[in-house]
Amino acid sequence: MDNLLLWTILLPLLTAVVCALLPVKVSKIVAVASTVVGLLLACLIYERFIPEALNGFQMVLRVPWITRYQINFALGVDGLSLPLLLLSKFIMPIALLASWGITNHARVLTICFLVLDAAMAGTFLATDIFLFYIFWEFVLIPMILIIGVWGSSERIYAALKFFLVTFAGSLLMLVAIFWLYTSYHAQFGTYTADIASLGYIKFSTDPVLWGLTAQEWVFLAFALAFCIKVPLFPLHTWLPDAHTQAPTGGSIILAAVLLKMGTYGLLRFCVPLTPDAFARFSPIIAVLGLVGIVYGAWVAFQQEDAKRMVAYSSVSHLGFIVVGICALSPEALSGAVLQMVNHGLSTGGLFLLVGILYDRRHTRKLSEFGGLAKVIPWYAFFLVLISCSSMGVPGLNGFVGEFLILLGTFQTHPLWATVAVSGVVFAAVYTLVMLRAVIWGPVKNEENLSVKDINPREAFLLGVLSLFIVWLGVAPQSLLGKIKPSLDVYWSQNSGNRETASVILPPRDSVEGEAGPRE
Amino acid sequence: MQVVLFGLILIPLLGAILNGLVLRSKHTRVAGGIATACSAACFLLALSLSLNYFETGTPLSAALPWMSAGPFVLNWGLRFDALTLVMTLVITGIGTLIHLFSIGYMDEEKSPYRYFAYLNLFLSAMLLLVLGDSLPVLFVGWEGVGLCSYLLIGYWYEDIDKANAGMKAFVMNRIGDAAFLLGVFICYQQFKSVTFTEMAHLTATSNSLSVWWLEMAALCLFVGATGKSAQIPLFTWLPDAMAGPTPVSALIHAATMVTAGIYLVARTAFLFQVSPDVSQWMAYTGAFTALFAATIALVQKDIKKILAYSTVSQLGLMFVALGVGAYSAALFHVMTHAFFKALLFLAAGAIIHGLHGEQDIFKMGGLRKHFPLTFLFSSIAVAAICGLPPFSGFFSKDAILFAALASPTGDVLLWGVASLASLLTAFYMTRFYLLIFFGDYRGEAHPHEGSALLWIPLAVLAVGSAFAGLVGMPHGLHMLPDYFGQLLSPVLPAWQETHAFLGEIGAMSVAVAVAALGIGTAFVIYRKGTGTGEKLARAFSPLYKLLLGKWYIDELYELTIVLPFKALCRFSSRIIDRAIDVTVLFPARLARVGGTALSLVQVGAVQVHLWIMVLGGLVLLWWALRGLVV
Amino acid sequence: MIPIPSTLAQWSHYIAACLFALGLFGFLIRKNGIVVLMCIELMLNALNLFLVEVSMRSSHPEGIIFVIFIITVAAAEAAVGLGIILNLYRLKGSVHVDLFKSLKG
Question: pTM for the complete prediction?
Answer without folding.
Answer: 0.88
